[in-house]
Specification:
The protein contains eight helices and no strands. With 240 residues, it is mostly helical.
Length: 240
Amino acid sequence: MKQLAIRSVTVIALVAAMGFGITAAASAGSTTTTAPSASFVAAQQALETQLAARVTRLAHLTADVNGATSLSASTSLILQARLSTEAASINTLVAKVPTDTTFAELDADRAAMYKDNRVYAVMSPQVFEMIEASLVVNQLTTDQGNEATLQTEVTSLVGMAGYQNALNHYNNYVARISNWSSRIVNIQAKVLVQMPTDWPHDTNVFVNANHQILSANIALAYANYDAAVIGLASGGYTGS
């Protein structure tokens, strides 16, 4: 009986030791998953929001280009191609960012969002200014086509009281149209060659182009006034 008791104690001790060993081994072989920090999640979500905004902006810009009948076919194709390339780049990041696990990955994707695309800094002003400049070009073409008619009207006033006034406005009209017909082409060329990699050096190009396009529109308004005065002179108007 004494030997049986000793054996029982030995077996119990062995089983306990084996159980402890199995538990320890299981604990040692387990993998602990660490949840991302709150700051990482916030940074990731912020980048996802920024990318979503760019997807929306690119869709709007594409719609603007497709709907701009004033753009030349070649300019439209160039802008469409650039917008398509940027949309593909941004959408790739949209799919990747949610899978990022480190700040280094987020930083690299954020840099790609900015440097490779420049949706707001380059593509937006480029599209807007190219469309606006094309409207100016079309109006200038129309106004040039009206020069012969206006000249005929002025010639018909020779010897009348309103002739000199009409002639002065006609000369102003021609000068304005001629001046901007050449300048607007140069503006379009400078704006269209700007690329995301040129930033921030192309910022001044866009700012200057915006001012020039505004000046062109003002000149067109004055030209329309000149044409109106010529028409009034045909009816005897002698003012300025």
